[in-house]
Amino acid sequence: xxxxxxxxxxxxxxxxxxxxxxxxxxxxxxxxxxxxxxxxxxxxxxxxxxxxxxxxxxxxxxxxxxxxxxxxxxxxxxxxxxxxxxxxxxxxxxxxxxxxxxxxxxxxxxxxxxxxxxxxxxxxxxxxxxxxxxxxxxxxxxxxxxxxxxxxxxxxxxxxxxxxxxxxxxxxxxxxxxxxxxxxxxxxxxxxxxxxxxxxxxxxxxxxxxxxxxxxxxxxxxxxxxxxxxxxxxxxxxxxxxxxxxxxxxxxxxxxxxxxxxxxxxxxxxxxxxxxxxxxxxxxxxxxxxxxxxxxxxxxxxxxxxxxxxxxxxxxxxxxxxxxxxxxxxxxxxxxxxxxxxxxxxxxxxxxxxxxxxxxxxxxxxxxxxxxxxxxxxxxxxxxxxxxxxxxxxxxxxxxxxxxxxxxxxxxxxxxxxxxxxxxxxxxxxxxxxxxxxxxxxxxxxxxxxxxxxxxxxxxxxxxxxxxxxxxxxxxxxxxxxxxxxxxxxxxxxxxxxxxxxxxxxxxxxxxxxxxxxxxxxxxxxxxxxxx
Length: 532
Description:
- By secondary structure, the chain is an all-alpha fold.
- It is built from 20 helices and no strands.
C-alpha cells in the first residue's frame, strides 16, 4: 500500500472540513429554543434529519473498513446485515414509534418504566449505559483510533481523546439538534467520497471503461459467482443462511427498535409522520451500504486478480485504504480522512448524547433530583458526557491491548449476546399485556447473566464452539428460552396484576409514508431476488 502521509492539500481539506462542521454546529445550537429539551432537539427533527442521523449513528469506520474487508474475502453476503434491517426499521416506524411518541417519552428505559414500573426502568437505564460505553463508544473509538494512529502515528489514547473531544463538543454545544444537523453534512460527504471511490475503482478495472469494469465484475473467472449471492449454504462458516434468517432478527429488533442511540432521533421527531418518513429514509440509505462499503472490497479483489497491484500481497483489512492510496490523486487522502472522521464523529456524538440523556433523565432526575431545574439538567448532561468520554477511553485502551481480535466479527457476536434480554423484554412488554414486572426483571438480571455468560463461554472459553454452532443461531435459541421463561413466570405470578394499556398514536399513516414503505419493500425484495 502506498504511503498515506498527509500533504499540504490534505491538511487544507481537513481544516476546511472542521471549519464547516463547527459552523453548522454553532448554527444548529443557535436554532435551539431557549429552555427546550436539548436531548430531543425540542421535538423539531424532520424526516431528513432523522434518516441521516440514524444512518450516521449506524455508520462507523469499523463498518467502512471491515465491510470492504468482508467484500474482498466473501462478496456481498455480509450485506444481509444492512439490507435485512429494513424489516426492523419498518417495525420501529409502525409498531414502536406510535407507542414511544404516544407516551411522550425521552428515553426507552422511561417507556419500560411506564410499562413495568420504576425497578425495571432503573435496570434498563444501567443496562443501556453499559451497552453504550462498550458497544458504541469503546469499539468505535478502537476502530477509529487504529486508522488515525496509522496516519498520524499517535498513541491510541490520544486518538480516542481527540475524537471524543470533537464529538463531545457538538453534543454539549447543541444536544441532539447539533448532532443531527452535523450528521446531514457528514453523511452527504461520506456518500460522495465512498461513491466516488467505487465508481473510480470500477472505471479503472475496466481499463478506463465503466461498462468494461462491470463486465469484469460479472466474469466468474475473476470474481467467483458466489460472491454475488446473499444466501450462502448452511455449511458456510461465516454467513450460513438459516442462522442469519433466524438470528439476525434478535439483534435487529434490539438494535433498530430498542437501542437508545438508534431510536433517539425518532423520539425527537416533530410528529409521528416525520418519524415514519425518517425511518423510511434510513431504510433507503441502508441500500447504499453494499454499494459504498462492500463493493469497493470486491473491486479491490478484482483489481488484484487482474494484476493491477503487480505482485503485491493485499490484506483484506487494507482493501479500502489500498483503493484510496492507488486510485485517488495526491491530496485526496485528506478528504478520505475527513470522511472517516465524519463517520466517527457522527457515531460517537449520537452515543454520547444517548448516554447523557439516559443517565440524566432516568437516574439523576428520577432518583436523585426530581425537582432539578432545566439548567441543572443541562449541566448534569454535560458532566455525564465528559465522564462517559473518559471512561470509554479507558475501555478503548483495554480493547487495544487484546491481541488477535477480529473487530467486525467480535462486534457482531457481542451484539448477538447483548440483544436477547432487551429484545425479549420489549417484545413481551409491547405485545402481551399479561406480562408482569417480575418476568421483566428476572429477564433483565438472570437472563442477562445467562445470555452474556453464554457469549463468554462461546467466544473465549469452550474450544471449537464456533465450529459447532453459529453465534446467530445461539442468539436465537437464547431469545426463545427467555421468551418461554417470561411466559411461565408471568402466568405463575399471582402478585402482579395486568397493567392498563399504554398510549398509542393511532393516526393512519399518510399517503407519502405508505408509498415510501411499499416502494422500499418492493426494491428490497427485488434486490434479494436479483442477488440470488
